[in-house]
Amino acid sequence: MLSLARGVWMVLAVLLLANFVASIPPYYQILRTVCTLPDPSNCPTGQLTPDTAAALAHLHLSLSGYAASFVTLDVVLSLLPWGIGLLIYWRKSAERMGLFVSLLLVLFAGTGIANSLLGVWAGTLSPPLLSTLFNLISGAEWIGLGAFLLTFPTGRFVPRWSWLVLSFWIISFVWSTPSPIPFLQGTVSLLVFGGTLFIMVYRYVRVFDATGRQQAKWFVYAAVVSLILLFLGTGLPGVVPADSPSQLLFPTIILFSSALFYLGLGLAILRFRLWDIDAIINRTLVYGSLTALLTAVYVGLVIGLQALLRGIIRQDNSVAIVLSTMAIVAIFLPLRSRIQTIIDRRFYRRKYDAVKTLAAFSTTLRQEVDLDQLREQLQAVVQETMQPSHVSLWLRPPEPSRKRQTWLLARIDEEERVEP
Predict the structure, then answer these.
(1) Are 217 and 281 in contact (CB under 8 A)?
(2) Other CB atoms within 10 A of residue 30 CB
């Protein structure tokens, strides 16, 4: 059975690789044209609208040069899921979950990062064949993603009835057209996402061991960062002026959002440096909160100082910026330390308490001279910080001094010589 699965994997990988390579030239031709659809969200990823094309022209860049650079970036980033999928197949193909995840990654890689190479054959295949091919690829990606979320990282449906949620993933894909009864379609979507989230939390709390929890942290962290970047790449274009040159950056952000997700997924499956995720999450929380607070303080200071200095001095804008920058520099370290303490206390309570307990014990260790008191405090510290099921302390009996050992050996040697 395993040999058959590996053979199917190889056949699908070759077909997807052929689609990947053959789709690059048509995708380049698409990006060389300007999208004229009424809704720009329906345009392929990276294709410019008339407004963004005008912004590109203001930067004195050609449409062909933009298309070549974007396709190159897309292909390079698409090599990441290809490489991770092949690595997982090489290292974990003997495991059911490893083989499945490697195939899922190769499936996404075959259609390009963020599915940007899906649908470029519109003018070369007959409509029925084209529609069937796209439906098969999209369905395999969607249903495979649902199966992964419901079985990660063990590859088994736990609890057993969780396969029912996968059936709603299938129904939601088949029933993709808008329903005349929105309530039913909303119910299916709620069962898909709400049921999947409930099962993932249940498995994390009740099923996973320490390694499984670290794998889940890597996956969730990568998914959250990817969703944030995807939100920025798809949401900010509606806020930024349509002819702004910054509009050219948002498709690139979308590409990197998918690449980071694949990277985190690969680290979770390969179990590479699993315990580093705790430090990464901690630093992300600290510096993410610090960046948001400093940005808000900086903007508030600039606006407030401009209003305060207006009418007093002429160059109120420059002075406000300089004073705001100096204030940010002054509060950076105290604010970072305070945020670090709050996050450790809120999200890493056990680690925070352990550090405080060990620091207090270090002070006591320098002052305590009673061995019995020191032993009791040492046992209490170990119990509080590590929380083992049982604590016992064994003290090695003191050895006699070297002088006494020499005296005893000499006495024994003398007694042996005296004996008849």
Answers:
(1) yes
(2) 20
- Across the chain, mean pLDDT equals 77
262-282 per-residue burial string, b: 16 or more CB within 10 A, e: under 16: bbbbbbbbbeeebeebeeebb
Whole-angstrom CA distances from 183 to 33, 165, 174, 418 are: 40, 18, 17, 106
Q: How many C-beta atoms lie closer than 10 Å to residue 145's C-beta?
A: 15
Q: With contact defined as beta carbons under 8 Å apart, do 289 and 250 qualify? A: no
| Dist. CA 20–CA 16, nearest whole Å | 6
Crossing angle of the two packed helices 96-110 and 2-31, in degrees rounded to 10: 20
pLDDT tens digits along 20-48:
887 888 888 888 888 887 777 777 778 88
Inter-residue contact 189 to 196 (CB < 8 Å): no
Tokens of 387: 């929380």
So what's the pLDDT on residue 380?
65
Q: Where do the H-state alpha helices sit in 271-315?
A: 276-309
Cβ atoms of residues 98 and 91 within 8 Å: yes
For residue 133, the SS3 value is helix
Phi and psi torsions of 155, nearest 5° = 85, 10
End-to-end, the C-alpha distance of the chain in Å comes to 83
How many residues appear in the chain? 420
Burial of 394: CB neighbours in 10 Å, binned 0-12, 13-18, 19+:
exposed
6 vs 307: CA distance, rounded Å: 69
d(Cα 360, Cα 380) in Å, to the nearest integer?
12
**Does residue 221 contact residue 277 with C-beta atoms inside 8 Å?**
yes
Alpha-helix residue ranges (DSSP H) falling in 37-181: 50-58, 63-92, 96-110, 127-151, 163-174
Task: In whole angstroms, give the CA distance from residue 325 to residue 302.
Answer: 9
Query: Per residue in 313-345, pLDDT tens?
Result: 555 567 777 787 888 888 888 888 888 877 777
Taking Cα atoms as reference points, which of 188, 100, 109 lies closest to residue 151? 100
